[in-house]
Every structure is written in C-alpha cells, then in structure tokens.
C-alpha cells in the first residue's frame, strides 16, 4: 500500500510536492466509527435519547479481510459523572470533536481556550457545571491559574499550530511555542492527583531527522512535538500519547456543532493502531477524538504511546470493548 504524506493539512501552499512512501506491510486490526453514532451523539446533549446501534463487526487487516460475527456484547459508553475532563485546544479540529463527544456522554468538561467566544459559537450555550470555559494561552504560564485545574481528573491536549509559517503563527504562535513550551507549561500546571493526560501528537516525531520527515520538520514541528511528548513522559503523571497520521475530516470551525458532526460523517472509520512510530498514513479527526476519550478509561494505555491511522470501512464506533481490543492488539505487536 503506497501512502501519501502531506499532513498538517492546515498548512497552505506546502513548499514541496507530495511524497510517496514505499509499500509498507502491516497486519493490524481495523475497526471503524459508525457515522450515524457520531451525528446522533450531539443530539443527546439535549435529548439524551440517541444510542449507538450495535452492528456487524468487520475486522480487516491490510493484506486480508475477515468478517466476524456481530458482537452482541457491544456496550454504550456509560455516562461518567465522576470525571472532569479539561480539554486544551477545544476550538481546533480534533478538540471540538472531543468536546462534542464529552458533552454527548454527559461528561463534565472544562475548556482552556485563547478565545472563549469560540466555545459559544461551536458548542452553543452550556451551563457551567457541564462545560466551563477558561481563558488561557498555554504559552503563558501566568494564564494557567491553579483554579482552572481544580477538580480536573483528566486532560486531553489537542493544541497545535501549522508546521510551516502561516497566519496561525501570528504573535509567535509557532511549533516551538505551542508544541513544546505550551505543552511543557500545561503539564507543569497540572495537579499530581490527575488520573490521565492524553496528548495528541504526530507520527514521525522519532524520525524528524530522516527523509521525508525532515521536510515536514523544516520549522521543527516534529522535533518540538517530541520534546512535548518527552516532557509528558517524564512528568510523573499518568499519560497516554496518541500520535496521529495526516488528519482528515475537518477542521470545521466555521460550522455550528450539530452541522459539524453531520458534515464529518465520512467513511474513513476503520482504525489502524501501532506502536514504535512505524505507521504511515491518514486518520480521521473523528477517530482521533474517539481514541483520546476511550484511552481515558483503558487502564493498560497508561504510560503508552500509540500511532493511529484510519481507512474506509466499518469499525468500533464508540464501543469501549472494541477500542480495548484495538489498543491491546497495537500493544501486542
Ligand atoms: N494536521 C495534521 O495533518 C496533523 C497530523 C498529525 C498531528 N497533528 C496534530 O494533531 C493535533 C490536532 O490537530 P488539529 O488540526 O485538529 O488542530 P487545530 O485545528 O490546528 O487546532 C489547534 C488548537 O490548538 C489551539 N491553540 C493553538 N495555539 C494555542 C495556544 N498558544 N494556547 C492555547 N491553545 C492554542 C487552537 O486554539 P485557537 O482557536 O486559539 O487557535 C486550537 O484549538 C495538533 O497537535 C496537530 O499538530 C496534526
């Protein structure tokens, strides 16, 4: 399977042509997210009625395809009222999907945003008990007041900027500042009682000196993401790192959330996971968001780093058991 590398999609006018990767051989289990589950989930914020439907589980591998019997044990993710999840980067492509999913699961969340107004545009008016928006720039340690983290049990960090110079670097919001210093500042501000921090990172961070990754790393994005990862690893906090391939599906930041979730009901739901930074390819932001949320509750993902891709096909939806199997299979490789 030849795979194209042209990730960090928000980069306008990439300064190099698309690069073809050599055929790579993986035999990882694949699942997918069922689109109707995603679009109906947001409605549960107000109606609390929609439930993911159980469907035939299709297990793929890159070289082969095996159809399994329906999984009658599929369970709906229970509401976890004991959690209070802080999302950093909740206005971004992955982050907004994370927040939407948390809302639909009745999980309380707190958002750390540079511009709190964006939360109202994206998520509508929510009561503060459910979704409390805090203003803060991760580059400024002074913004990260301990009060923001009071009671927070879990953190999902989806912050990022473009890999190459763009308007999003305005005000020195560069990879060095966001992916390294911002992550460092955020992690340093977290309470030691935290149950888990999930950091969204990138495939290729361990190979930033090698072609073709060195091209993506011309302005240091992979190097700084790796520094952020290392800081998380050494922090002593329980962590999981999710390294995404090139992101697809969004960001849809100009949509209201309901439209957004419907708009992203694409077909790239089958999930590939690996470890050791060998995976190359693309991944839907919907899949990444779901992986982050699922990892919070899977004890053996603590202290682990996973790479994630997705392709067309059926998959795990929001079924915790199927996600456990995916994470377990990735770990066993
Ligand atoms: N694009 C790809 O193909 C690709 C591939 C692999 C990994 N990744 C990584 O995956 C993650 C999610 O990507 P995405 O494209 O979904 O993200 P995105 O749309 O670029 O969103 C980034 C988020 O980070 C926030 N942010 C930026 N600078 C900040 C700062 N100084 N303080 C606080 N928040 C800040 C942004 O908030 P504002 O609204 O204030 O700007 C936004 O919410 C990122 O870490 C990205 O680098 C991306």
TrEMBL record:
Organism domain of life: Eukaryota
SUPFAM superfamilies reported for this sequence: NAD(P)-binding Rossmann-fold domains (SSF51735)
Pfam families according to UniProt: NAD_binding_10 (PF13460)
Domain NAD(P)-binding, residue spans: 89-297
Name by which UniProt lists this protein: NAD(P)-binding domain-containing protein
Organism: Citrus clementina (Clementine)
């Amino acid at each position: 399977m030849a795979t194209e590398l042209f990730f960090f999609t928000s980069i306008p006018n990439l300064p190099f042509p698309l690069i073809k990767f050599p055929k790579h051989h993986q035999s990882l289990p694949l699942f997918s997210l069922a689109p109707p589950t995603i679009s109906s989930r947001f409605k549960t914020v107000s109606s609390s009625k929609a439930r993911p439907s159980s469907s035939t589980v299709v297990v793929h591998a890159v070289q082969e395809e095996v159809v399994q019997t329906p999984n009658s044990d599929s369970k709906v993710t229970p509401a976890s009222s004991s959690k209070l999840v802080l999302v950093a980067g909740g206005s971004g492509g992955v982050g907004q999907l994370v927040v939407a999913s948390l809302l639909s699961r009745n999980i309380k969340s707190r958002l750390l945003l540079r511009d709190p107004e964006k939360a109202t545009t994206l998520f509508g008016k929510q009561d503060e008990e459910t979704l409390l928006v805090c203003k803060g720039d991760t580059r400024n340690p002074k913004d990260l007041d301990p009060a923001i983290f009071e009671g927070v049990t879990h953190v999902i960090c989806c912050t990022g900027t473009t890999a190459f110079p763009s308007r999003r670097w305005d005000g020195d919001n560069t990879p060095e500042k966001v992916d390294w210093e911002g992550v460092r500042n955020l992690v340093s501000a977290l309470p030691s009682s935290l149950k888990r921090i999930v950091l969204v990172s990138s495939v290729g961070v361990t190979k930033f000196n090698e072609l073709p990754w060195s091209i993506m790393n011309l302005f240091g994005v992979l190097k700084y993401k790796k520094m952020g990862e290392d800081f998380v690893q050494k922090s002593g906090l329980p962590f999981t790192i999710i390294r995404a391939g090139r992101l697809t599906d969004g960001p849809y930041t100009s949509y209201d959330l309901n439209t957004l979730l419907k708009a992203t009901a694409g077909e790239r739901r089958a999930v590939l996971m690996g470890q050791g930074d060998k995976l190359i390819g693309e991944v839907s932001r919907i899949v990444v968001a779901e992986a982050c949320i699922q990892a919070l509750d899977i004890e053996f993902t603590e202290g682990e780093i996973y790479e994630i891709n997705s392709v067309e096909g059926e998959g795990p939806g929001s079924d915790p058991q199927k996600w456990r199997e995916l994470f377990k299979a990735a770990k066993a490789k």
